Amino acid sequence: MNSADNIYLRDSDRWRQVSGKLKQISVGSNKHIWGVNSADKIYRWGDGQPVPKPAPAPTPAISTSLSTMLTAENPYSFESLSNPKYYIRYENFTGKITKDASLPSNKAGSFKMVQGLAGDNTMSFESIEYPGYFLRNQKSQITLQQATPDELFKKDASFKVVKGLGNSTMVSFESYNYPMHFICNDNFNLVIAKPEGDIEAFKKEATFRPTRALFGFQSPTNPTNRGRGRN
Predict the structure, then answer these.
(1) Higher pLDDT, 176 or 217
(2) Residue 182's closest CA among 200, 219, 155, 207?
(3) Which of 19-23, 103-107, 188-192 holds the top average pLDDT?
(4) What's the chain's average pLDDT?
């Protein structure tokens, strides 16, 4: 691509321009090439054809306002589409998908959704158990860490709420720092990843049903593990 969003294809020993415009391209393999245009619509390279065509998955990343799918400052839990009754939570300050997040001893499955630390129509997951601690991306793993003023933390802890990739009545969370990477379940670990491989399976692993928080607001506690890791 060039600064005008024009797309070029390597043809033998030269570059050949193809139709269409993209502002970003992500390559998983020669069969998994994805792009985003200026309207934030996602396209997949068309089966050997030199023209990108609309991807059957994931669905376009449609940003939503804070007052639609999720309401800022309200507490939520998030049930996995791929594993019903399993919820987003943290365990030893590492993001997981686990069962029985409603147990009183399992406050780690409830979050207050706040306006994204990075702004720009995003949201952040603030721990109800540990106020001031947020879920963030750290080298593709989701962890819980205390907020810091640096810009990297703000970006890593901010996510765009989009229509569920596997069910449009649910939600998916696109990383602010890594566009087209979504919070998803990877063998019960919570990570961010881009759609590739088995797309239908990925869509389900990256989709969650918001529910009323399974454990309500709690008095602040002093965690013994501050969850600080390498950025």
Answers:
(1) 176
(2) 207
(3) 188-192
(4) 77
Cross-strand partners of 208: 80, 171
The residue to which tokens 């529910």 are assigned? 211
Of 203 and 215, the one with more pLDDT:
203
Structure tokens at 92: 């030893």
Burial letters for 121-139: b for 16+ Cβ neighbours within 10 Å, e otherwise? Answer: ebbbbbbbbbeebbbbbbe
CB 33 within 8 A of CB 44: yes
Give the pLDDT confidence score for residue 31 in this predicted structure: 53
Each residue of 149-173: b (16+ CB within 10 Å) or e?
eeeebbbbbbbbbbbbbbeeebbbb
Residue 35: CB atoms within 10 Å: 23
* Least trusted range by pLDDT, from 12-16, 90-94, 190-194, 207-211: 12-16
